[in-house]
Write a structure and sequence with these properties.
The strands form 3 sheets. Strands 3-4-2-1-7-8-9 form a 7-stranded mixed β-sheet, with helices on both faces. A 6-stranded parallel β-sheet has the order 12-11-10-13-14-15, sandwiched between helices. A two-stranded antiparallel sheet has the order 5-6. With about 375 residues, it is α/β, with parallel strands linked by helices. It is globular. The protein contains 13 helices and 15 strands. The chain has 2 domains: about 200 residues, 3-Layer(aba) Sandwich (Rossmann fold); about 170 residues, Glycogen Phosphorylase B (Rossmann fold).
Length: about 375
């Protein structure tokens, strides 16, 4: 098959959707398909076109400049031209990505091409433009060959997904387990780790409040915050106001090697998300692949992904989160159990296995188009 993946950005840009798109491209290319990726340019330094090689297979990435961007939506007339003219059998759209997906949807309808939507999260807090997009999004979801949420739980809490009018098929996001090494490094006893963007829905402010409570029982506890974002200065100020100067380190630039080392040596990963904008939590899979215990919240699909390998706190509740942190910090046997369960559980999320499910969905979608024709 000639498969087109439409993403907001692509590696080296970091983010959940970018990671999902990269794993799909790698996995489908390994299965022998011709894979190309269309996305916007995240920065001026990125090349317009690149060929990525992986395990003897390759896929192409085309990055397009945008005419304008608003509320997280980027419009690229050059991308639209290629969507209308380039050859592909089926398109895989990563949602939410409003403008690019509407262009891809329109081109697929015009050209009679099937498309699958990988529904990563509801569109949250996008104001007037978000309200304008909602009816168009629902139409697009109803017309898709398949809509793929990444967890069963997210179907039940989503404002948009409708099992009655949409062809829903749950396929989890994936991780390339081959890229993770020894999960038996010596772990620090009181080092907590957060990895992610410093944005409101990640709940890092709640994590700092919880840490202030935890420090009363574990005065030497250390929280490493690996990531950057618009709330960085605000969070640094809050940590100082809470008297956490010696208990919090902000790590802005963390490359892949450092990220894996952090996951391999931390006592536990904490993902304290507070809204359903956090639908899956790719970093949970990274933690499990590294043998790192996970603490997350009950707000969305993150608790389903963590499964038996995680401790789940109430979202937005610093007291509940502090209790979960203390439980993991004080009990070495609990940590070892969570680590072992995670290493076993993450195997079902391996890119090779998940992409077989995606390939099956693509084949079914193409057969559906042939039958309708």
């Amino acid at each position: 098959m000639n498969i087109l993946i439409v993403s907001k950005f692509f590696s080296p840009a970091r983010g959940g959707i970018e990671t999902v798109a990269m794993e799909q491209a790698k996995g489908l290319a390994r299965l022998g398909h011709y894979v190309s990726v269309f996305c916007s340019r995240a920065s001026r330094g990125e090349p317009n076109f690149a060929v990525f090689s992986d395990c003897g297979f390759s896929y192409e990435v085309s990055r397009f400049w945008t005419l304008f961007a608003a509320a997280g939506a980027s419009f690229s007339p050059i991308m639209l031209w290629h969507l209308l003219c380039d050859k592909f059998d089926i398109a895989l759209l990563q949602e939410p990505n409003p403008m690019s997906n509407l262009m891809a949807y329109s081109s697929c309808k015009i050209r009679g091409k099937p498309f699958i939507i990988f529904y990563q999260a509801d569109l949250v807090n996008k104001g007037f433009l978000g309200k304008l997009y909602k009816p168009l999004q629902r139409r697009m979801l109803r017309d898709a060959s398949v809509v793929v949420p990444s967890t069963n739980k997210y179907i039940s809490i989503s404002d948009t997904l409708d099992p009655l009018s949409m062809n829903l098929r749950v396929v989890p996001n994936s991780i390339d387990l081959c890229s993770f090494g020894d999960a038996h490094l010596k772990r620090n006893d009181e080092t907590l780790l957060f990895i992610g963007r410093l944005v409101p829905y990640k709940g890092v402010n709640i994590l700092l409040e919880a840490l202030a409570k935890v420090r009363k029982r574990f005065p030497n506890v250390l929280l490493l915050i690996a990531g950057d974002g618009p709330l960085r200065e605000q969070l640094i100020e809050k940590s100082m106001l809470l008297g956490l100067n010696d208990n919090v380190d902000f790590l802005i630039h963390v490359d892949d090697a450092s990220r894996k080392l952090l996951l391999g040596t931390a006592t536990a990963l904490v993902l304290p998300s507070v809204t359903k904008a956090e639908a899956f939590g790719m970093v949970i899979l990274e933690a499990q692949a590294s043998g790192c215990p996970v603490i997350t919240t009950d707000i969305s699909g993150t608790s389903e992904v963590a499964g038996e390998a995680g401790i789940v706190a109430y979202a937005g509740d610093s007291e509940s989160l502090a209790d979960a942190l203390c439980a993991v910090l004080m009990d070495k046997q609990l940590r070892e159990n969570l680590s072992s369960i995670g290493l076993e559980q993450v195997k079902c999320y391996d890119t090779g296995e998940v992409c077989l499910e995606i390939e099956s969905a693509c084949i079914d979608s193409l057969r559906g188009v042939v039958r309708e024709g």
